[in-house]
Amino acid sequence: MTLDIARIRKDFPILEQKVYNKPLIYLDSAASSQKPVQVLKKEEQLHLEYYGNIHRGAHFLADKATNDYEAVRDQLKGFINAPAREQIIFTKGTTESINLVAFSFGEAFIKEGDEIIVSEMEHHANIVPWQMMAQRKGAKIRVLPFEDNGRLMIEKLNELINSKTKLIAVCQVANTLGTINPVKDIITKAHAKGVKVLVDGAQAINHLVVDVQDLDADFYVFSAHKMFGPNGVGVLYGRKELLDEMPPYQGGGEMISEVSFEGTTYNELPYKFEAGTPHITGVIAFGEAIRYLTDLGVEAVAEYEHQLLTYATEKLLEIPGMIIYGTQEQKSGVITFNIEGIHSFDISTMLDKMGIAVRSGRLCADTVMQHYGVSGTIRASFAVYNTLEEIDQFIAALKKLMVMLS
Ligand code: PMP
């Protein structure tokens, strides 16, 4: 299916504005995507018509909000092909989903001397929670490295996995390198040795069709704000047998069955892991984002983004001194780069003044920066609302600023 990009752009009014009197070119969707009006209108409608606290069953508004909230859980079950709705847990983002698993899986299954394998290309959110858990439990983190072209060295898993290995934490798509990792192979290798796998799907969920049963993932996590949804909402999918054994992450309302000073019993899944009033508006509006993405078609979106990636890569490589980090074939719409002799911060600041929004710095991936021995990079990331013309303008801006800086 061919996407009508001009039509799609109309759903994102934020893109129509000028910044510093220049048309905005938003190339930072890997940090957070913009939201279509359908999502924004849903938030407004909820507040105008039926906002109430959910699961209290107290009145008309609460009931209607509860139904819509729970309907999004069902939508997500379908979207990632989870076996059952209670395996979809709402969190405030990928970061909280990983912290939840690191804490609760750690409490249930990790003992002193155990090992966790984490890849070298992870976002800090998929490193630090494991380090904190390892410190608490006396466990050890081992690193699965990547090659200079951004390919994960999965053949090293054979050496890394041993009888103490309990879990592998790996991204399906890396936020810096754009690498699409063969997570299904990783999971097969891990399961053959009784090791569980958490897949960080934050950068994958809007680029790849995700089927958690086909992947056979033990945990799969992602954020709504990277897929046209509101910020402050995330998802944890987990294998039921594991979630059942794992203790609650936070205590409070909703996650209990009964409370007394003699002792408290916990609610069933998924509520056991959903303490307190959640982001009701965000989750309900997230439903519209899933609908929006599904209507466009994840595969069609990915194909279009790949065109943008290929075109931008070719054009960038024409620039003298261009260094692109992550150059292997299996890649999503992310280009992280530097230009020899120019500081990344200077480039991004000047691009900003030309109306072009990119990300710069360490990209929440210090271990990737360490791999290449750089203190910072620039990242341009594409979404379905970007155009080839915007890429031309981006390249022209880079050429112009190089002249100005040299
Ligand atoms: N993992 C990856 C691969 C990411 O790209 C991000 C967001 N940059 C995160 C985790 C953290 O997501 P969030 O900030 O939404 O919790």
How would you briefly describe this protein structure?
The protein has 406 residues and is α/β, with parallel strands linked by helices.
Characterization of this structure:
- By secondary structure, this protein is an alpha/beta fold.
- The protein folds into 2 domains: 5-30 and 297-405, Aspartate Aminotransferase, domain 1 (Alpha-Beta Complex); 40-294, Type I PLP-dependent aspartate aminotransferase-like (Major domain) (Aspartate Aminotransferase, domain 2, 3-Layer(aba) Sandwich).
- The chain is 40% helix and 17% strand.
- The protein contains 14 helices and 17 strands.
- Strand 1 and strand 2 (22-23) form a beta hairpin.
- Helix 2 (37-50) packs antiparallel against helix 10 (280-296), helix 4 runs parallel beside helix 5 (128-137) and helix 11 (298-317) runs parallel beside helix 14 (388-405).
- The termini are far apart.
- It binds 4'-deoxy-4'-aminopyridoxal-5'-phosphate (PMP).
- 4'-deoxy-4'-aminopyridoxal-5'-phosphate is lined by residues 93-95, 123, 125-126, 171, 175, 200, 202-203, 223, 225, 364.
- One of its GO terms (biological process) is cysteine metabolic process.
- This is Probable cysteine desulfurase.
- Its EC number is 2.8.1.7.
